[in-house]
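Our collaborator T.R. sent over the components below with a one-line note: 'Predict the complex.' Nothing else. No constraints on interfaces, no templates requested, no preferences about which chain binds where. So this is a plain run: every listed entity goes in together, and whatever single assembly comes back becomes the starting point for the next discussion.
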Amino acid sequence: MATDSLDLLQGTLDVLVLRALSWGPMHGYAVARFINRGSDGTFKVLDGALYTSLHRMEERGWIESEWGNSETGKRAKFYRLTTVGRRAVRSETTNWNDYVAAVARVLAATPEPAR
Amino acid sequence: MPYPHTTPAWRRYLRLIRSPIARDVDDELRFHFQSRIEELTALGAAPGDARRRAEEEFGDINQVRSDLMSIDHRVAAQRHRREDFSDTLADVRYAFRSLRRSPGLAAGVILLLALGIGANAAMFTFLDTVFLRMPAGVVDPGGIRRLWRYHQFSTEAQFWPGFSYAQYDAVRTALGDRARTALYTAPWKVKIGLGESSGEAQFVKAEAGFFALTGARAEIGRLYDSTEDRLDGPQRVAVVSHDYWRRALNGDRSAIGKPIVIAGSRYTVIGVMREPFVGVDLDAADIWIPLAFEAEGRRENGPWWKSPNINGFQILVRPAPTANDAQLEQRMTAVLRRPDFGWYSDTLSVARFGSIVRAAGPGKQEQEVQIGIRLAGVALIVLLIACANVVNLLLGRAVQRQREIAVRLALGISRSRLVRLLFAETSLLALAASGAALLVAYLAGNLLRRLLLPEVHWASSPLDGRVVGFALGVAVVAAIIAGLIPALQSARADVNDVLKSRSSGGGREGSRVRSTLLVSQAALSALLLCGAGLFVRSLSNVRHIDIGFDTQRIITATVSYDDHARSSDSTFPARLGELASRISTIPGVRHVALSSARPMYSISWLTFFTETDSSRRGFSPTWTAVSSGYFDASGVRLLRGEDFPKTRGGPHAVVVNDAMAKLAWPGRPAIGACMRFGKRTEPCYRVIGVVENSRERSVIEDASPMYYLPLNDLPPEARGWTANYVMLSTDPRSAASVVGSVRGLIRQAFPGGIPSIVRLSDYLEPEYRPWRLGATLFSAFGLLALVVAVVGIYSTTSYSVQQRVQEFAVRIALGARLADVVQLVVAEGTRVVAIGVVLGVGLAIVAGKLVASLLYGISPSDPATALGVAAILFVAGIAAAMFPAWRAARVDPAATLKTD
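Returned assembly:
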């Protein structure tokens, strides 16, 4: 896989994961369900990439983890946004929206006549 | 006080289990797959399909697993670092708070350590600059050797770095292409400019090759080359150091090409040396001029470079990479033993390479440097005493805090954490102390330099990175020593014992450690005081040496000119004679005479023969040309025979001193004996008088053979020698006014001349300096040690009195009298001092051997000194214990016993 496409994917995935966690602490599987359900099958995220994203963001200090019990009573690792992470959700979301809007503007534009 | 936050225990335990990270990752992934498979099965998939689908959705499981593990490892390491840092920060904050509650203790500890560390840093600086630091700006200084030779001097055999040009030439030829060589003279103070208000600079005479060998380069202008540095006709060109250029020539680029007057002669400045080169000696050089000027103004028969008399040159050698030092030394030794080097030839000569750093060479150290080395040891002892005292103070504090510590232990703090916490306190103290120590080091370093080597022109500041590093290093070691003992001891305390016992008393073990420390402090103080005593008594012995001359009464006067030609004027001696007769009319002047040299400055030898001796003589007497009346003026007593007659025309006469009489004519009367100068065929000079021995060069030396010839009837061998000095004796009380009158007379008689009038006592003062220095510095350190030890005894005794208040109350209630209680307390302090004194004096006798060579007229195991020191320490120890003892005796039994 080429590096730049991975970076794009990774950045996108981070926003989605952060968004998921902004609803409250979740374990990895819940985050996967949130994203796959939300996308409605438009795109497919490999679950492995999702876990990599979770751990990377933990390293960055955006989220922290703790072991706890899942809905079914099993031991699971829960992730939670940190103060830094909450700030990141806001800025990453804004960035993403700006990016999407810019792409949309370019797609809608017509060429100006050359002078 | 809240206890600092620590990490939850479970995280610490998790760290201990083998690879918890791998387990965590596996658990997390297992949970994911279980959940997904359950969900898919619930939706109706077959278990096998469900698993396959879950794995497809996941991607490369092994890759992800190893990625996650490596990320988590980094996360764990990060967390670890952060926790350690916050723990340390908490420790420091805690230490700071708890020290602020006892500012007296903190100040005491910082002061003690600052003095101890500062003294050591200052000594380190001194030794570092003298022995370790390579000269700045020299290319590969480690590859340059300084040449020394072992030589039998009249007083003793020793290594010496001085050579004549002929010897240099022979050495250079012997080395051939195995090494590069260069010749130069050590820096020497010289007058710059004209008149009485001229400046001074350190100048060096060096071969042009000296620059190439050391790698010195010009910053502005150029250095002189071998065509300007000819032996027979050197050019008057000078190179100045960058520092001198900035300091004395205002850093003006146009100084190049301008004249500079050095020692009365005009030179042209041709270049400024590139920084930081200031020569290869401890003494920084300001000016370099061609080598041959060393011979200027010297009366030599034949070319100067053949003369064995001009022999103060230093030889630098840079051996080729392939050369073997030992082989080169052998070659040079062989040529130095050649018989054609005048009276400097020596069949026992040995050539030896030394470091470019002269003090590190094989030669004898200057006495001041030797004292410096011993002082470094003394400074270390002072630091030990300071540390012992700090340990005592901290131990006392630890005992006071035993209850607090026990509570902490009971609440579950780990003992290692406790040690860390207490250690943080001492480290904080040591850090503050090392800051204060640097200040002490800077002040003391400058002071030491001025005291120990005042003539040296220092190129660098006493403080540099190495000294700062040294001070910090010592501070850390001191913190470990001073902090660990109390910390370990309090951490060992048994929680139950302390909490159950009602008193806050210190353990028996604690008091044992403390009295051991007190004993060692007393012992070390005794050691230093013994050293101080020995040096003080040496100084007094040296002061009382009879040097032959009447130092308090003698004044010498002479005149010099900026222009060499005028002082070598043939009418000069006659005019000096006229001046002498005019001086004799000044009120307060008793005797006046003329001489060729200043007392203790007669460094001149003549070839002579007696009736009996062979050419090889075991002694080489120096001589002085004097006028009649010289012995009266100098205070050198006539033992037998008579002084020179006032008028000339009688038979040729010579006066010898007692040492010469005994060496030259053993067992026979010297009076009437014959000396012939130069050749055996010369006319006979008869000994007409024998005078007492006087010192030849320094205050402390064995009596040297000397003789005196009359100025008005010198043998041809002594031609060229004339009267150079007027010597007068006066009442010490009127000396100041006499000096003024003499100066006036010289101005009248020698217009344009520069008078130089010196009292012998002033002139000799530097001779006593090493002894005065030893006495002063050892006394200062000894007193410091004594004060520190007394404070230690005082504080420890007061502390133990405080601890035993109840015991004293009971004793007093049971009828003990005031004297009984005082005696009880003082006896304890005295016991400590007694053991310390015995140990310290024993140490002093052993260590005395190290300073024996620096003492004069006293044995290192001198019993009077030891007894004196013992007495001083006893009195001080009893006095220190007396105050707390008094307090113990005044305990109110009723009040004390009721409170408990």
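Summary for T.R.: The interface with chain A takes residues 24, 27-29, 31-32, 34-36, 38, 57-61, 63-64, 67-68, 71-72, 74-75, 78 of chain B (CB under 8 Å).
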